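Project channel, design review

CF: Before we commit to the Sphingomonas sanxanigenens DSM 19645 = NX02 constructs, I'd like one complete example in the thread so the newer folks can see what an input/output pair looks like. Taking M23ase beta-sheet core domain-containing protein.
RD: sounds good, go ahead.
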Amino acid sequence: MGRRHVPLFVVFALLGCGFALAAPNPDLADERRAVAEAKRQSALATARARSLQQRATGERDAAAKTDAEAAAAAARAQAAEADVAAADGRIAIVAALQARQRARLAAREAPIARLTAALQTMARRPPALAFVQPGSAADLVHVRMLLGSLLPVVRARSGGLRAEVAAGRRLRLAADRAAADRRAGHARIAAEQRTLARLADEHRLRARTLASGAMLEQDRAMALGEEARDLVDLMRRIEDDGLVRRRLEALPAPLPRPAQPGAAPLPAAVAAPPAAPGRPAYRLPVVGRLVTGLGDLSAGGVRSRGLSFATRPGAQVVAPAAGHVVYAGRYRGFDAILIIDHGGGWMTLLANLATLRAAVGDDLVAGAPVGRAGGGQALVTVELRRDGEPVDIAPLVSGG
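CF: and here is what came back for M23ase beta-sheet core domain-containing protein:
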């Protein structure tokens, strides 16, 4: 008779507490890879900044010193941007782990609630009732036996909950540290932007004496831009213009007037243009995530001639290699673009810049700040060409 009165809700509550399963850990491999890549870019940019700052300290020429200081400040800004990206990735990982922990705790909450309700019901039954109600004494014995067998499971579960609470505390601390690193990164970016603005003012003051030559180059670049049908044609015209300029520079100097007519020597043969230098030391111009590779097809069916990077809003863009600016400005359907002549037929196109710091006629050192990316979903494109043909940048980039 007693078995008919066994409080089955107690049994099910205890069994439910014992069989609640923990959900598997989330797959955060992509986020962890992104954080590792951001840390790698930060380390590379920090090393570049240290090297450029040492060069600036040793420079005696004021112009070269300012250029090296600007490149060092740009590298420090890129390192800070990479640190912000790493902090964002860590915050995303912690948020995912916290969400999964909340799901685990919610899954365990229901059986624990049932167990608590059952124990409260048992506690409200007077002990004397066990001797009056038929079967209640046997029920009590069975429940005590069941409690004794499941007590280790309950203890294990309570230990697991304590571990979850400790893990939640660690996750909150990790989130706080990542948020603090993110704020520090933004503060460093702002500080380096102020440094770059100061150095840009010094550069403009120094460049006023060279304004006439720069205006001639700017006028020629604007004329080429107006004549070109599209961006590819603009690159071709600028490359042709550079080839003509190099040939003119290779011509011998004019001969002095002879003392006697007819005594002038025969002109020497026109010297061939100097041998093209090897490939330039190259680096990526921006910190970001690669979204389009060389040869990839766009949604419109156009094949990419370079690399496109998704960056944080206002990301610092630098010169990927030393060179001479031959075009700088907005061009038709693009935001601001910059074309750098590295010599020897090597040219770089940087497209979709929101602001430009470099101007036509500027001679740039590798890593010199040239502009900034736009806001929102910023996308910066870089194309490298040699003698008019697209070149894969990846093999040239070694160590960032």
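RD: helpful, thanks. Helices lie at 8-19, 29-58, 62-124, 129-132, 136-207, 211-227, 231-250.
CF: The chain has seven helices and ten strands.
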